[in-house]
Design a protein that fits this description.
It is a single chain. The protein is of the alpha/beta class. The chain has a single domain, classed as Transcription Regulator spoIIAA (2-Layer Sandwich). It has three helices and four strands. It has helices at residues 25-36, 55-70, 82-90, and strands at residues 6-10, 13-20, 42-53, 74-78. A four-stranded mixed beta sheet has the order 1-2-3-4, covered by helices on one side. Helix 1 packs parallel to helix 2 (55-70). The radius of gyration is 12 Å and the shape is globular.
Length: 98
């Protein structure tokens, strides 16, 4: 799967590019439905190329965790940008992203 926001690196591993913000969330949510429905047991999302992120992006990450859990999948985020890590910490969600 290739798009302007997600690039599949290998089976179950994706690199996320661009913004993870209020403006980008609807597009990202729609694009993510393909890999969430793939049935892959484990999904890794590399966030090293995220330029800007806000609370809407964090909400989308939480939704991905919820949807993956409902399907029996595990989702892991790597290289979470500092801006998002701050939101995670302030929101008391550190345990969710361990």
């Amino acid at each position: 799967m290739a798009s302007e926001n997600f690039i599949e690196q290998q089976d179950g591993s994706f690199s996320l590019h661009g913004e993870l913000s209020f403006a980008a969330v609807p597009v990202l949510a729609a694009q993510s439905q393909v890999w969430l429905a793939s049935g892959k047991e484990s999904i890794t999302i590399d966030m090293a190329d995220i330029g800007r992120a806000d609370s809407a992006g964090l909400a989308l990450m939480l939704e991905w965790i919820k949807q993956a859990g409902q399907s029996g999948q595990q989702i892991r985020f790597i290289n979470i940008p500092g801006q998002l890590n701050s939101l995670i910490r302030v929101s008391g969600l550190g345990g969710v992203f361990d």
